[in-house]
Design brief:
The protein is α/β, with parallel strands linked by helices. The chain contains 10 helices and 14 strands. The protein has a 7-stranded parallel beta sheet, with helices on both faces. The protein has a 3-stranded mixed beta sheet with strand order 12-9-14. The chain has a two-stranded parallel sheet with strand order 7-10. The protein is globular, with a radius of gyration of 19 Å. The model has no long low-confidence stretch (mean pLDDT 97). The structure holds uridine-5'-diphosphate. The site of uridine-5'-diphosphate has 15 residues, from helix 6 and strand 8.
Length: 329
């Protein structure tokens, strides 16, 4: 009996596979390799290349393998792209999940752990954000993830699906071994972009606005190590296996850092001056996003092990300095 990880060649998916295998689980991966990397696939996982929008492909995996539960990362996840190409997000994220659920129902597979996002909240009513707070996404990416959550809810009502949705805040860092890490093209995330400066690939880092209502005027985010996120997926699957009810959990450290604080910490870690320039705000960026993760801690027993920002950036730097071109040779 195995866990099927959809999108297991991507950033958070590959780190989750590493943790599942360390925990002694059998893992099957399906990934279309559109944004994932074959090099990120754990050698002990069984790999199928294919797309979740392809019903025949998804059926063939469920027929070939004994699957206990599904962890679903297979989605597009770039906020900016979702605003210029929203239908791509409806197609891959929503149509893909619809096909997946049809196939799961047909094959009697009733457990899914889902990769959701803080972008489901939009501009927060308050921080720290609770799972019961208003969800009004300000971008199409967050909208599709929220709709996917609702698809699970109604599939549960009709067909008895059991689901956990994990709403991540800012995923970052890399596996402590240095063998896998973040490799997006194009890269849009703050920490890998900052580290391109000491890596000689970028002259300076842009600070997107310094006139927010925060302590130094720059945006505040809750940065959470990718391995801690990975652990939460294992706990969530165990929770469902033990009969846990459908649930939604925030995943973050509950501590916010400004963009300037992140840059300062990267300077400390790398020993590089990392020049920074203030540029206009990026559209759709809320001033502050900080998670309340009390529910994940109390219900799932989740206990992040890499909460220190310096340690997070050290693991990221260890990956990026040794893999300046990501997985490309
Ligand atoms: N950011 C920035 N410069 C960059 C990239 C990001 O100032 O080159 C800021 C961005 O405005 C946000 C924070 O860094 O406040 C984190 O952005 P990221 O894209 O990493 O994650 P998001 O919070 O959008 O999920």
């Amino acid at each position: 009996m195995a866990i099927l990880v959809l999108g297991g060649a991507g950033y958070i998916g590959s780190h989750t596979v590493y943790e599942l295998i360390d925990a002694g689980k059998d893992v099957v991966i399906a990934d279309n390799l559109e944004t994932g990397h074959i090099e990120a696939v754990h050698p002990k996982a069984k790999f199928y290349q294919g797309d979740i929008r392809d019903r025949a492909f998804v059926d063939s995996v469920f027929e070939a393998e004994q699957i206990d539960g599904v962890i679903h990362f297979a989605a597009n996840s770039l906020v900016g792209e979702s605003m210029t190409d929203p239908l791509k997000y409806y197609d891959n994220n929503l149509c893909g999940t619809k096909v997946l659920l049809e196939s799961m129902v047909a094959h009697g597979i009733d457990k899914i752990v889902f990769s959701s996002t803080a972008a489901t909240y939009g501009e927060p009513e308050r921080v720290p954000i609770l799972e019961t707070d208003r969800t009004e996404p300000t971008n199409c990416y967050g909208e599709t993830k929220l709709s996917m959550e609702k698809m699970f809810k109604w599939t549960s009502v009709a067909h008895g699906l059991h689901f956990v949705s994990l709403r991540y805040f800012n995923a970052c860092g890399a596996h402590v071994s240095g063998s896998i890490g973040e490799a997006h093209k194009p890269e849009t995330h703050l920490i890998p972009l900052i580290l391109q400066v000491p890596n000689g690939q970028r002259e300076f880092i842009s600070i997107f606005g310094d006139d927010y209502d925060t302590k130094d005027g720059t945006c505040i985010r809750d940065y959470i190590h990718v391995t801690d996120l990975a652990q939460a997926h294992i706990l969530a699957m165990d929770y469902l296996m033990n009969g846990g009810e459908n649930n939604i959990f925030n995943l973050g450290n509950g501590v916010g850092f400004t963009v300037k604080e992140v840059i300062d910490t990267a300077r400390e870690v790398t020993g590089h001056p990392i020049p920074a320039k203030v540029t206009p705000r990026r559209a759709g960026d809320p001033a502050q996003l900080i998670a309340s993760s009390d529910k994940a801690r109390s219900v799932l027993g989740w206990n992040p092990q890499h909460a220190d920002l310096k340690e997070i950036i050290e693991t990221a730097w260890n990956w990026h300095k040794n893999h300046p071109n990501g997985f490309a040779k």
